Amino acid sequence: MALLLIVLLPVLGALFTGAFAGNNARLNSLIAMLAPLVSLALALSLLPAILQGELVLAHWQWLPRLDLALSLRMDGLAMLFALLIIAMGLLVLLYGHFYFSGKPKDNQRFNGLLLLFMTAMLGIVTSENLLLMLVFWEMTSLVSFLLIGFKADQRAARRGARMTLVITGGGGLALLAGMVLIGQIIGSYQLSDVLASGDQIRQHSHYPLILLLVLLGAMTKSAQFPFHFWLPHAMTAPTPVSAYLHSATMVKAGIFLLARFHPVLAETDLWLYSVSTVGMATLLTGAFVAMFKHDIKGLLAYSTISHLGLITLLLGMGTRMGLIVGLFHLLNHAMFKAPLFMMAGIVEKATGSRDMQLINGLWRYMPYLMVLTGICAAAMAGLPLLNGFLSKKMFFAETLQSPFTGVLGWLTPTLAAVAGLLSVAYSVRIFHNVFFNGLPRDLPVFPPRPPARGILIPVTVLTLACIVVGLVPQYVVHTLLQQAAHAALGAPLPAYNLGLLHRFNLPFLMSALALTGGLVMYLYRRQLFAIYDRMPEVDAKENFEWLMLRAGNFAERQVHRLENGSLQRYGALLVATCLVLAGSALTGLTTWGGGVTTPADPVTVLAAVILMAAAVAAVVIHRQRLLALLLIGTCGLFVTLLFARFSAPDLALTQLSVEVMAVIIMMLALSFLPQTSPRESSSLRRLRDLILAVATGSGVAVLAYTVMTRPAQSISGFFLDNSLTGGGGSNVVNVILVDFRGFDTLGEITVLAIAAMAVFALTRNLQLKERVTRESGSYWASEPHPVILRMIARPVLPVALMVAGYIFLRGHNLPGGGFIAGLVASVALSLQYMAGGLVWAHQRMLTAFRPLIGAGLLLALATGLGSLAFGAPFLSSWFNHYHLPLLGEVELATALLFDLGVFMTVVGATLLILANLGNLMTLDGPGKEIG
Amino acid sequence: MGIPVWLEAVIAILLLLGALVAALGSLGLARMPDFYMRLHGPTKASTLGVGCTLLGSLLYFSVSGEGFSVQEVLITLFLFVTAPVSAHMMARAALHRRVQAVAKTTQPPRELGRGERNK
Amino acid sequence: MIDFVLPIALGLFSLSLLMNLFRLLRGPDVVDRILGLDTLNINAIAVIVLAGIAMDSRLIFEAALLIALMGFIGTVAMTQYLVRGDVIE
To answer: What is the pTM of this model?
Structure first.
């Protein structure tokens, strides 16, 4: 439970801030920070156990048949990430409070989204189920889309957000495929099972494919080459978002994935070469480009890419020590990169710019920030006594002992040293360029506004962390790191000592060389900038936009080729598809069935003949719309009779009610249409349609005949046996509707409600002043509501409602039920509209329709949920028989409540459609919308 | 079953009579020369015929074991109340559409003619 | 006696149904067709009642009741449309 709370508390906090804080920014931020604080406390309470090497699991069934479970795990690796996520989140929330000061709305939205993101990240790192992890994985992509596009009114922000979503979302799809493959091979999606079957996967023939897919997911998320270009464009996000997502959390998700799946996928040559190549390429690209970015955040973004490449390279080398160093550097990177991002935000707020060509010499204005930035930049560069120095030196040591042989054996450390040199150069630049380097030039805001004191707190905290970890790593992070690496490796660890790292040796020499080289490089920066400016520019954004545009256009063309807006065409395509698919299956038919058939009696035959005649006539005269409608009504009547004849009274009642309701609604629609439909199709097309229709009709006939004459085991026996005992009703049809298949019914009434709402939404602001004249051109008649009709309509209503009530109540045991009763009631009420007019009838309606629909849906849902409270599955019905005085034996079933919900929804939805279509014709209607 | 012979005879006669009268009404619908004449058959004769059938059914089920039920009464009542209204509505529609009539039916009552002319 | 009369009555009503269908298909005016459908409804009620007697069950009588109700409202809707050009206002 504690595990679940750790994950869910942030999102709960997000709900609370929205609900209680209102526009009070301080309260909002307080509530927003409270939830992660509790989360942190819970996580820390688990820490001792984790440090002992324990594994905490929590498991709830979700969709057992899909092997999808809400199961969480907390081990060393998860704990490392969880603490990082929560602690960084807290600091960023605090930072965001000051960053968004004066904009309470923005602050509130930021808090909510950030907390949501926190939950998603925590979900990824604590998931025990692969599919669950994917759900959270996609959630981070979605929330990051919202966070990057935070300033939604800016084109660049929207584009950056879209790019991130496309790339990380696409990677998520690849990851999904990879996870499913893993699940298929192992037969389980539980992480524990997966981690235990590494050999099985590595030996499987699909291993390269799985590796490729998982790596695609990880590499896109962690902005690895060649997918790195989204990260600089995501810098359109507000700075707190960048500090959280792009230095500490989201980009680390890919790294987490690599570490998590280390026991499953690593320790093969394929892993070694693919991952480390990508890592090295990213390390160098990022480090090289970072030096030349004039935008502070741009520089930080590329440096982040470079550091992520470094970690990936370490993980790619597949050595156990490499994993430890990678995780260590990941932690350190969050500690020094986040405050640098925060510094960028503070500087931007103070000066109105992020361009380092303009921002110079800020030390006069913010000396304290200068000190903090200096320490962080030094950590990034890898100066001794700071955390970055330790992990970078360990990194150099690892490259010297890399598993590569031959040329790669010495190339790797050399390139690593070059990358180190570049990182020193850009670290020096961000510090020196911003705070020294002469005087500020043409700043939008001058003199720079001093930062608020509070905004410096998180920066200070993180800077202190850099120093502490750098000085005494063995006391601070050693044990946790060890447990994390242990959890990731699933194997014992090599001996190492973080405390001895400050000693002089070959890696120390590499560090020193990188340091000197970087300083020299920075000194010659102007010449280098000049060279860089002359290099051909590869703008990934342009290419990406071009690709997106082409993809969009291509998709659009395909869609238009298929969907040209012609309903006839869709109908033809649909029917033809059915014909091909079902027809090909039907050709395999060997026997026609046979068996016992009911002998036909003359009256039934006659009814069938009339039905056919009416149907054929409807086809022949379909251009005269009213006549066609009449004939369709006739067909409906005879279908009803045939249902009644073959002992399906429920179907008969439903058919009849639906028929009349449909005819009335179609007649309403007819008011807007010419009375005859024009001939529009060529004769060739009509021939095609004729062939299609006849073939499909014959196909359906053959299908129906063969199915009905075939001796088959149907499930009706089950329903008949269990209807009374299981559902408490003897009308099997109704029990199926409200109990056995109650979930379907719930879905169906929801669809009905949505359709009614759509009609309402589409017609509410529509004004049709032009009326369609009749064919003869004369005007429609006056005297709208004949007295005789008005007089008769009133007594009909209570009688009809009584019939509806009767049908409703007896529905559970005898033909009837909520749906039919609802239709009967709506038809009776629609008579009032026809007889008295819209205004007259509407004034007399007891309730508005939309609340009725909503109440109906809620009632049905609540009935279903009610069974959960008693420990039964969703929508189980409960019933009992009571003996009441006067009334005798009375049966009460919760299904009746459910049916009442159906009834209300049906009445509300049909009348909403009816009244709004009628309202279209009314020139002087009720004046306001009908709903 | 225990239906007295005389009652069975009554029921049989009601059913037969109902069917005959209804058929007569339908014959009128099929054979009469214009709409205004055709309107009479179904709305009067057929309603009466179906009413007889319903009465027969009411008697039959009252004595055959299922017992008296309000259904037939309700249907009969409903038919008898609504038939004139539908007839009125249809006649109104026909007049409005100026449906062709044979010579015998072309003298409309005065009030109706005036009402229609004024629109 | 009833068993003897039932087929005859059913036959007569079938004949009525056919004659109504004739009017429904023949017209000539829309009102004639509406009248045909209305009569078809009324006769269908009788057929259901007779079938109920033949089956010795009232189970399908609700269908007859609904035909009476729905048939009437359908007829009203159609005549309203003919006169007014719309069903509700």
So the answer is: 0.67
